[in-house]
Amino acid sequence: xxxxxxxxxxxxxxxxxxxxxxxxxxxxxxxxxxxxxxxxxxxxxxxxxxxxxxxxxxxxxxxxxxxxxxxxxxxxxxxxxxxxxxxxxxxxxxxxxxxxxxxxxxxxxxxxxxxxxxxxxxxxxxxxxxxxxxxxxxxxxxxxxxxxxxxxxxxxxxxxxxxxxxxxxxxxxxxxxxxxxxxxxxxxxxxxxxxxxxxxxxxxxxxxxxxxxxxxxxxxxxxxxxxxxxxxxxxxxxxxxxxxxxxxxxxxxxxxxxxxxxxxxxxxxxxxxxxxxxxxxxxxxxxxxxxxxxxxxxxxxxxxxxxxxxxxxxxxxxxxxxxxxxxxxxxxxxxxxxxxxxxxxxxxxxxxxxxxxxxxxxxxxxx
Length: 367
Prior knowledge:
Layout: E1 10-13, H1 17-20, H2 23-26, E2 31-35, H3 40-43, H4 46-56, E3 60-64, H5 73-86, E4 90-95, H6 97-109, E5 131-135, E6 147-152, E7 157-162, E8 170-173, H7 183-201, H8 208-222, H9 225-230, H10 235-255, H11 259-271, H12 275-293, H13 295-303, H14 310-321, H15 329-339, H16 354-365
Parallel strand pairs: 1-8, 2-3, 2-4, 4-5, 5-8
Antiparallel strand pairs: 6-7
Helix pairs in contact: 5-6, 7-8, 7-10, 7-12, 8-10, 11-12, 11-15, 12-13, 12-14, 12-16, 15-16
């Protein structure tokens, strides 16, 4: 049995966990750059909690709140300059996947002068600002991954910085910050987490340990499906979704993602469809493709959701996602041309051809 597992991030979960563990931040440095979006961290109380903890430790901070949805390469270079100008010696990221992904790029670039053409090389000196992450959505699991996903306008898709150097040191998980999420955001982020765990089990790099984490994640997300649909989640369910999202992050930290993510990036880049929703629209038909070759594996995966087939899985997600966006055939051909060349496509136990990718797009989006 060949198993490798590396998870250097210390995870602290529970209500008011930042205040209760403020001392964990003290070891990171004397001055923080808080990386976040424009409004949500202020509205949900997470920013105030972080500031209170830093102040209690006698640590200084400055705020970089210019991270947009689907952060760009320009954003991380601007953030890195802000970190250097502030004299920050550590980063605190607050928010969903966008601020967390941006923060990793900022932490790397604040210490290294990397030309843009080499940003995604994966070859960096061992020099990065330490990071503490506070996720405020239950979806990306970025608080426990070594990936920074950035919008790459040159390639008209998203591209990953991938390096063990950008694992956060600490992650604080408090579900109270997710209580103000809209129904659509709660659904989309949960499906993003679900796609991580499902794709992780379909990766060529999966092992028994990552499959155990994925199974726990899938079961947890499906246990909240009915409440996600109504938009009435209990605090315990919000904790379960946050926990399941974190597990999904641990999974893809080891397995990577598959063709679903590569295909979904075009829906986000060209049509501004939320990343998690994009994955959800495609995941069922990708499972149906895999089912033709590996029926037992797909049966195992869907069983964690109490289902018996990929078709049932697709129907459950379709019910949750509601009315689909409309697409023209030539749009989907363009997306297939882009997706087939993405490196994630070859990471799955089934490597779809361009024709199969186009078929998944059509079956998922043009029914």
